[in-house]
Amino acid sequence: MGKYTISQTDFLEGEVLIGGSKNATLPILAASLLCPDKITLKNVPNLVDVSNMCNIISHLGGKYNFEAADELCISLPEITEHKAPYESVSKLRASFLIMSPVLVRYGKVRIPLPGGCPIGTRPIDLHLKGFSAMGAKIKQGHGYIEAKCPKLHGANIYLDFPSVGATENLIIAASMAEGETIIENCATEPEIVDLANFLNKMGARIQNAGSDKIKIVGVDKLHACSYSIIPDRIEAGTFLTAGIMCESDITLKNIIPDHIRPIMAKYSEIGADIKEGDNYIRIKGKCKGINTDIMTMPHPGFPTDMQAIATALLCTTSGRSLIVETVFDNRFLHIPELNRMGANIKVDGRTAIIDGAKLTGAKVKATDLRAGAALVLAGLVAKGKTEVENIELIQRGYENFDEKLRKIGASIKTTL
After folding, report:
1. Nearest C-alpha neighbor of 43 from the set 75, 71, 15, 74
2. In whole angstroms, how far apart are CA 400 and each of 51, 284, 340, 370?
């Protein structure tokens, strides 16, 4: 397992080019399987999770290749296998999105229960209830889900919780179902809008994506297209946090400021100096270090994927701050590791109580993707050296994370 060795960094300066969104790319890759023609995706991040999804596509009979560093072409004229491989699915939560296009095109699908980061319970019952409402016969057992349906039909579906994954899976399925589907209480994240925009460019008829009530009229076929993925708002939020934690003058480019407005609004409360333009933001100077309280919420609230990263930041502020995690039930695994670095954090249920402290370098382990990024940022301000192990988890969601940090002045070395 690889590791990052980070030394305290006094100043960050320069530009960071934010890559394509991991959380938009994966559902769009799944949705591309609805079309037998060649699909070209641009602004695709070169990540382990993307590679795992491509391996699943290959197993199903598809072909893919990177025609440029961030341009991926996919074609699946015929689905030759309706069973997804356990080896790839077990590594990737988003692999469950393969269920909808395979079911639509093949009439049946068999997929292992998905894996991913151990951040808490993420049940798939909302996915299955939606598929059942659209006519699929579901069978569960021995770690697998099986679904069969010659032709899905439209339905009125109300989600008990605005699940991003369930919303994505059902949008994909409904795009070629017979008749009209309405999904209520659905997720409104920017990645949902990106998925709908991609499908519409292929010829789908999806309305109101980004609201809590989406209408989809099924079509008989979809056609080839070229599409550019939105920038990664969590990567942008991560580098924004790095700039605020360190004395900085950095500019983040290739971003959509509206996508990270909940993050910027909260960080402004602690005294961060953030200037924004049409497709960039600039962070200048160290924040005033005022404490604040954060509650994670579905979009447009503060994103749960930023919770661990914000925790690292609040360790450096004065006074007492609170973070309440409302989305996942096991997303405080980074806290014992931050406490090893001298942080003063106590956990009470779903609330983390953070008292400002001076951090010192230590050997720590990434417990999941975002937790690992949080430990790296903590290492930038900790006195001495910090070693972060299990960096393969971090590389699942950040392309060239260490290189981008070094480019703006961070002292970080990589050992593989």
Report:
1. 71
2. 15, 23, 26, 15
117 is catalytic: yes
Q: Which of 354, 243, 241 is nearest to 9 (CA)?
A: 243
- The helix/strand/coil state of 126 is helix
Of the pLDDT bands very low, low, confident and very high (cuts 50, 70, 90), residue 119 is: very low
Provide the 3-class DSSP secondary structure of residue 69.
coil
User: Do residues 27 and 39 make contact, with C-beta atoms less than 8 angstroms apart?
Assistant: no
SS3 of 170-235 = HHHHHCCCECEEEEECCCCCHHHHHHHHHHHHCCCEEECECECEEEEECCCCCCCCEEECCECHHH
Distances (CA, A) of 132 to 138, 169, 240: 7, 13, 42
Alpha carbons 184 and 359: distance in angstroms, whole number: 45
What pLDDT was estimated at residue 115? 59
Active-site hit among 117, 225, 246, 315: 117
What's the rounded Cα separation, in Å, for the pair 104 and 99?
Answer: 9
Q: What are phi and psi of 295, to 5 degrees?
A: -125, 120
Phi first, then psi: give them for residue 61, nearest 5 degrees.
Answer: 110, 5
CA–CA distances in Å: residue 227 to residues 39, 147, 369 = 8, 30, 27
Token digits for 229? Answer: 């993925």
Tens of pLDDT, residue by residue over 67-95, are 888 999 999 999 888 888 887 777 787 88
pLDDT in tens, 166-188: 999 999 999 999 999 999 999 99
- How far CA 104 is from CA of 34, 127, 133, 207, in Å, comes to 7, 14, 14, 20
Task: For residue 33, report the phi and psi dihedrals to the nearest 5 degrees.
Answer: -70, -10
- Are the C-beta atoms of 175 and 183 separated by less than 8 Å? no
Phi, psi of 212 (to 5 degrees): -90, 10
Query: What is the tens place of the pLDDT at every residue in 331-383?
Result: 899 999 999 999 999 999 999 999 999 999 999 999 999 999 999 999 999 99
Chain segment 258-307, per-residue pLDDT in tens: 999 999 999 999 999 999 999 999 999 878 888 899 999 999 999 999 99
pLDDT over 80 at 118, yes or no: no
The pLDDT, as a whole number, for residue 122 is 53
Q: How many CB atoms lie within 10 A of CB 160?
A: 11
CA distances 198 to 154, 204, 222, Å, are 20, 9, 11
Pairing mode, if any, of strands 3-7 and 385-389? antiparallel
**Tokens (6 digits) for 205:** 């008829």
